[in-house]
From TrEMBL:
Secretion signal span: none
Superkingdom, natural source: Bacteria
SMART domains (alphabetical): PP2C_SIG
Name under which the protein is recorded: PP2C family protein-serine/threonine phosphatase
Organism lineage: Bacteria, Bacillati, Actinomycetota, Actinomycetes, Kitasatosporales
Keywords annotated in UniProt: Hydrolase
Domain PPM-type phosphatase: 174-387
UniProt organism field: Streptomyces gilvifuscus
Length: 395
């Protein structure tokens, strides 16, 4: 092995054997001891996607770095390394920390005068990826990284909802996904879930009725009932029927859960959809935005033993789907005008050049301007799915 390979292997071993709560300290020790860095800081993005906070000082808001308008935020948004140098030759290298498309934060490294950032760039990019993988494992055993994600205290309902969620972004050869919820620290009913296998991507977009803990409990029951049915291998329409039975058995029709169930076949782009409630879907194709027309069926839990049917359509490579809850399409401006599909179409067109992971936050910023105040009255959920099509396999 070369010295560089030995160094990277030793760095990876140090991270893998570190105590779960010491990953940020360990990567700093590795970078200072083996790479000659003056300092290194692991910053994690908060739930609202507005700031990057140092894991070493999560409660010190003065050390938080804005996602928009900062060097670290530039690396986070572009998902590319970004380097700044001063007149004395000192360099600051910002490296995205991402796991399979899930954007965790940024590793910021300070290099002394005379160092050559480009010499170690590829190696440090790989080290940042190793850090991301270790954080995703370590989170099972420590609250350190959950605390670093929050700029303020979560409500109990929001705590329950965030624990239900998968990653907020994900990528595969055929697709890219991004999602975001508002208000990030006080959500209660809206939720999303997804899972991918070798041949399918399944996505749920949910909107639970009620407020606070009641809404969070309803959504938790519904999501877990859907997962239980999905993991039993039943088709998407039967997943809806089984989850419907679970919700009805608990609430006897007094509470229901609106959900859009999407089953995407990765080999062909064939989509099977069950529309059981209020979430909406729009498609951007060749620059034109159109609502995807679906047959509305009953929300989960309204009546006993409801039957559901799936509709089918096909995606073309280059298609983008946008899913929104009623806290987006039904929100009213101060004058009473609903946001609606026309405004959503404008927002989708305006964000067409952004990657899927960035689209939900951009749409929610536009929505904030429409309603004329920063905080919504209802949960607002946006999910974006880009379809690239089946990619050729190497020989």
């Amino acid at each position: 092995m070369t010295d560089d390979v030995n160094r990277l292997v030793a760095a990876g071993r140090a991270l893998r054997t570190a105590a779960p709560h010491r990953l940020a300290a360990t990567v700093r020790e590795v970078l200072c001891g083996r790479y000659g860095a003056e300092n290194a800081e692991f910053l994690m993005v908060d739930y609202a996607l507005k700031v990057l906070q140092p894991v070493s000082a999560p409660t010190d808001t003065a050390q938080a770095v804005p996602v928009h308008g900062s060097a670290a935020g530039r690396a986070f948004g572009a998902q590319q390394p970004f380097v700044l140098e001063d007149d004395d030759g000192r360099a600051w290298m910002h490296l995205p920390v991402t796991v399979r498309g899930d954007r965790l934060g940024v590793l910021s490294v300070t290099l002394p005068p005379g160092a050559r950032p480009e010499a170690d760039m590829a190696e440090l990019v790989e080290l940042a990826q190793v850090l991301g993988h270790e954080v995703s494992v370590a989170e099972r055993d420590t609250d350190v990284y959950h605390r670093a994600r929050r700029r303020e205290r979560l409500t109990l309902a929001a705590e329950m909802q965030w624990q239900l969620l998968p990653a907020r972004s994900s990528v595969g050869p055929e697709y890219a996904l991004g999602a975001q919820l508002e208000p990030a620290y006080a959500i209660f009913g809206d939720n999303f879930d997804w899972t991918a296998s070798a041949d399918r991507l399944l996505l749920y977009v949910t909107d639970g009725m009620g407020e606070g803990i009641d809404a969070a409990l309803l959504t938790s029951l519904g999501i877990n009932a859907l997962r239980n049915a999905r993991r039993a291998g039943v088709p998407v329409a039967d997943q809806a029927a089984l989850a419907d039975q679970a919700v009805y058995a608990q609430y006897r029709g007094e509470a229901h859960l609106s959900v859009l169930l999407v089953d995407l076949e990765l080999s062909s782009g064939r989509v099977r959809v069950v529309d059981a409630g209020s979430p909406r879907m729009l498609r951007l194709r060749d620059g034109a935005v159109t609502p995807v027309s679906l047959d509305a069926q009953l929300p989960l839990g309204m009546f006993e033993e409801t039957d559901y049917t799936a509709q089918e359509f096909r995606l073309r490579p280059g298609d983008r789907l946008l899913f929104v809850s009623d806290g987006v399409h039904a929100v009213a401006a101060p004058g009473g005008e609903q946001y609606g599909e026309r405004a959503l179409a404008r927002a989708l067109t305006a964000t067409r050049l952004l990657p899927a992971a960035d689209v939900p936050a951009a749409v929610l910023r536009e929505l904030s301007g429409h309603r004329g105040r920063p905080e919504p009255d209802d949960d607002a959920l946006v999910v974006c799915l880009d379809w690239f099509g089946k990619q050729p396999t190497g020989t």
